[in-house]
Automatic annotation (TrEMBL):
Residues 35-224 form the BD-FAE-like domain. Keywords: Hydrolase. The keyword Hydrolase applies. This is Lipase. It comes from Plantactinospora mayteni. Gene3D superfamilies: alpha/beta hydrolase. SUPFAM superfamilies: alpha/beta-Hydrolases. PANTHER family: AB HYDROLASE SUPERFAMILY PROTEIN C4A8.06C, KYNURENINE FORMAMIDASE.
Length: 279
């Protein structure tokens, strides 16, 4: 089930997870919701809120439910975790700008909403860490560029970077065109606004984790983005023999690396050593 070295790489998408503890609303629309998982009693200092931005190429057929195993695992390790939902292409209001507006509004609202329902002392003060996978990794990096004061750090797992190239590669059969309403020549201003690779790295700590066997989202744009970054707070971890879903699967061999990067973002000592990191 790991998705590496055999088994069904997509197993995590159907694997059941314990139900969320609390449903939160950050807006009036049906998609303006987040599932909150309460953290286990911390053995040490309380951990920051982790806002999970799910992937699925921004499309309506993919929602937050497939990040349940990931969220449950992190909550068991002491992190409060909110799985953010947002309008997606194929739904009313999805695509530009609704998808982006929802993600920005949810990230801004969730720390206060979570603090209101968590027992005192169970969440570290300050802004959340954004954990985004695939299209969610793109949205997390975009959100950190848009409002860095509201973000502690970004963990982007197999993110869709370089939207113009993703359009040319026709990832998921026109996913980028559906998101932005056309190609780079049709709506150049939107590509400039929506693509994190058109800007410097976010002014917050960030880590990109990407597998070399990823067939859904090629690793090369992540390599280029990390190689061109001047920020010492941007880390790039390239995982040999890991595909697209291993980075969100708590049963995979990639998961300890993902956890190490999250711990680094949370301010813990450690992370992975330089020999296993690619820049």
């Amino acid at each position: 089930m790991s998705g590496e070295g055999g088994g069904d790489a997509r197993g995590v998408l159907q694997r059941p997870a314990p139900p969320a503890d609390v449903a939160l609303r950050y807006g009036a629309g049906p998609e303006h919701v987040a599932d909150l998982r309460l953290p286990a009693e911390p053995a040490g200092p309380a951990q920051p809120l982790v806002v999970v931005v799910h992937g699925g190429f921004w499309r309506a057929e993919y929602d937050r439910r497939h990040t349940g195993p990931l969220a449950a695992d992190l909550a068991a390790r002491g992190y409060p975790v909110a799985q953010l939902e947002y309008r997606r292409t194929g739904q009313p209001g999805g695509g530009w700008p609704g998808t982006f507006d929802d993600v920005a509004a949810g990230i801004a609202a969730l720390p206060g909403l979570v603090e209101a329902v968590l027992p005192a002392g169970r969440m570290a003060p300050g802004p959340p860490i954004l954990l985004g996978h695939s299209a969610g990794g793109h949205l997390a990096l975009w959100a950190a560029l848009r409002a860095p004061a509201g973000v502690r750090g970004v963990l982007a797992l197999a993110p869709v970077l370089d939207l113009a190239e993703a359009y040319r590669l026709d990832l998921d059969g026109g996913a980028v065109a559906a998101l932005l309403g056309g190609g780079p020549e049709d709506v150049p201003d939107l590509y400039a606004t929506a693509d994190p690779t058109r800007s410097a790295a976010p002014p917050v700590p960030a880590s990109i984790v990407h597998g070399t066997l990823d067939r859904q989202v090629p690793v090369e744009p992540s390599r280029r983005y990390a190689a061109g970054a001047t920020s010492t707070d941007l880390r790039f971890v390239e995982l040999p023999e890991c595909e697209h879903f291993g980075v969100i699967d708590p049963l995979s061999r990639a998961w300890p690396v993902v956890l190490a990067e999250l711990h680094w973002l949370a301010g813990r000592s450690g992370g992975i050593d330089a020999a296993s990191r690619s820049r």
